[in-house]
Write a structure and sequence with these properties.
This protein is an alpha+beta fold. It contains 21 helices and 25 strands. The chain folds into 5 domains: 161 residues, Rossmann fold, CATH 3.40.50.140; 152 residues, Topoisomerase I, domain 2 (Orthogonal Bundle), CATH 1.10.460.10; 116 residues, Distorted Sandwich (Topoisomerase I, domain 3), CATH 2.70.20.10; 119 residues, Topoisomerase I, domain 4, CATH 1.10.290.10; 91 residues, no CATH class.
Amino acid sequence: MQLVIAEKPSVAQSIAKVLGATNRKDGYTEGNGYIVSWCVGHLVELAPADSYDEKYAKWKYEDLPILPHHWKYNVSSSTKKQFDVLKKLLNDSRADTVICATDAGREGELIFRLVYEKANCKKPVKRLWISSLEDTAIQKGFENLKDGKEYDKLYEAALCRAKADWIVGINATRLFSVLYNQTLNIGRVMSPTLAMICERDAAISVFKPEPFYTVHLSCNGFSLISEKLKDKAQAAAVLKSCNSQEVIIESVEQKEKAEKPPKLYDLTTLQCEANKLLGFTAEQTLSYAQSLYEKKYITYPRTDSRFLTEDMVSSIPALVKTTAGFFMPTTAALPVNTAQVIDNSKVSDHHAIIPTMNTKGLDVQILPHGERETLLLLAIRLLVAVGDTHRYSETVITTKCGESVFTAKGKTVIQDGFKAVQKLYKGEQAKEEKDQALPKIAQGEVFTAKAEIKEGKTSPPKPFTDDTLLSSMENANKAETDAERKGIGTPATRAGILEKLIKSGLAERKGDKKTKYFAATHKGIALITVLPEQVQSPLMTAEWEEKLKLVEHGELTADAFLTEIVGMTSALVKTYEMINGANTLFPSDRESVGKCPRCGGAVTENKKGFCCSDKACGFAIWKENRFFTAKKKTVTKAIVTELLKNGKVPLKGCYSEKTGKTYDCVACLNDTGGHFVNFTMEFGKKPHKR
């Protein structure tokens, strides 16, 4: 028998149906020579720091850096049951071959390999690599299974990325959290992304709008406009010299231009468009796309390609006809320029995201709102991408009045092309043309101009939306061509990075329901202020991403990459010096219950006790303090507040372990500056009721 392991139960069910493995068991199905089971996301993950040494359970500067020599892996309690099922199946004598059917990508490969190795399985592995969960795609995939060894480098790159994120995240997070006395989440990709947000926020905050002026000459139905002038007096002089004057048209230039249809969607461009047109966050779009994929309505979403492969040529016309049915009768004739979307050289693991033939006859209204709108966006993009070129004539009219040059631009559409199809979709209308439609004007024509001044102001940079931030993450080096681009994160991970920034309190989404934008919080700005360049630099992180690609392609070893990461992290721990004014940058987010008797800092409450905000100080009154628990008294905020204010606090009804009776006393703070805070008792004074 062959054991098939999918990434999710729903995917496993689709595969099992095609294979005929319909006999349901606990955690798997079997039949027809197959056993089909599944993971539940990441069943096996890199173990936490304290699994290497119990002392790492507490965050201490002197323990850094934490650099495992032999990596450990954990199975979480929530997923242990399914892991145990897979472990048993992987070592079941009935199964002679294992088929990896997790998502065909870096993370999917990692999910399977860690389970396979944790189970100590040695059986041969085949790889199912498909871009669609349609029955025909699954059948074809099983007819063309790959040798699992072909994906060893993909696994190495995935594991390398996970280890790098662990090393940077664990050490940098602990380093800065300990030094600045609050939890500060640092991430290999998250921190550079935060840096980009902070940089944009800073540019907006310091921006000062500058006025500019243009002189407009109204000439019998069209306007000629001067260049932008910074000085109002200069604009007034131009106005005076040109108003009511005759102007002679010096030149009329006409050029026919063409605009090619946009490319198909990869995940990032889909997320960008869905945010811009529909207001979806990147995470929401990924969730909707993943659900559509599992329902077999679209192809694999976690792709970075915007093209299809040559073997798909024959299927595209039928798919276009099916997809057009969402917007028009299927009898309508639409252009299908297949060559525009085909390029094998630009498809690595997966082709662009497109609808599948399973959408034929689908009533899209039955789908949840987010899935419906995402599917329609993908559908119209397919129709547009195979559409005709948009053609137009551009006219530029030039004249001179005094010493000033004036121009007018206009466009005349020759062929709507793909923009006619674009208009079928409510959200993706063709952009309004800014240029006026010009009347027929000949060189040498004379007009009497009516001049006026119009004032404008320069605009500040716009804050990042999901759309523009994803684009900046994809092109961190600001390259002018796709081939030169270097990004941070991957299409599959960027959405999660954005949400982690929000959850960590380092950034927030602002704006109205339709248009939300990112803004760094005070905590996020403070963090970027103290982070060294090597941790927050998008360019450096982009270089790391490129090196991970080299690992994937066998051009760089994982050890060489990790050695660089370890070196950077070790140097960071050894050389980093705290920034002055940390109390201002990172004010405690906890309410102060009093002043520390040792250093004068603020004492705040946490789960275990009342501690000085300066961890180097070491002052702490623990809630489970033996002095109080022996007397069956609870250490409350009120008790600690009075102790810190007056040095003593009256207690009533204290239990005596010797006599079993109760008594009243006054507890006195008797701190000697040692590891533990000491207390003494006073008697003879009537205590207040507490």
